[in-house]
Write a structure and sequence with these properties.
CATH architecture: 3-Layer(aba) Sandwich
Largest sheet: 6 strands, parallel
Radius of gyration: 18 Å
CATH class: Alpha Beta
Distance between the termini: 50 Å
Structural class: alpha/beta
Bound molecules: flavin mononucleotide
Low-confidence stretches: 1-8, 180-184
Helix content: 25-40%
Order of helices and strands: EHEHHEHEHHEEH
Mean pLDDT: 90
Length: about 180
Amino acid sequence: MSRPCLNTRNLAPRRVLVLFAHPALERSRVNRHLVEVARNVPGVRVHDLYEAYPAFNISAKREQQLLLEHDAIVFQHPFYWYSVPAILKEWQDIVLEHGWAYGSGGTQLAGKLTLNALTTGGPEQAYGPNGWNHFSIREFLAPWEQTANLCKMKFLAPFTVHSALQYATAEQLAPQLRRRRPRS
Ligand SMILES: Cc1cc2nc3c(=O)[nH]c(=O)nc-3n(C[C@H](O)[C@H](O)[C@H](O)COP(=O)(O)O)c2cc1C
């Protein structure tokens, strides 16, 4: 009788890469707390893009190697003009190469998980069909969702801390961090 085969791939702990983008960390109230929390989680590597590339000279090879070494990719950033800080757009343009991330033979990211972890100045009720911003955070992130689809990644719901400017201390922020699955 053959023995049952245990698929250990499903049991392997996930290696998480946080691609962090904040252009003015010294003025940050929330992201700097979030990123400190992330740095202390075993299996999580934080990669600060503005620190690594102050002149935006992003290395595709270095970034691609980091992506290959991780199973889940988190883009952490403040929400700027309903989108991301500029370096993340540059990162996409440089790193997600045709034939590597998408297109013919471009399967290097297939199966990896991805999500955006972001902070907004606006309150939660501002985001949605009845709010003054008219669209949900998930809808604003449609280009990120479709980019993930194109790269055959699994796009997860965003982690959002709304009304970020109201958190002056780490203690005030703590209940937000304990929320297991914030709504988008
Ligand atoms: C250039 C710029 C654009 C911004 N655009 C938005 C926006 O579109 N929607 C929003 O809710 N907040 C917006 N904000 C507020 C930031 O999202 C907020 O200051 C940030 O999330 C706070 O996080 P931090 O304390 O880590 O900096 C913007 C702030 C700046 C500086």
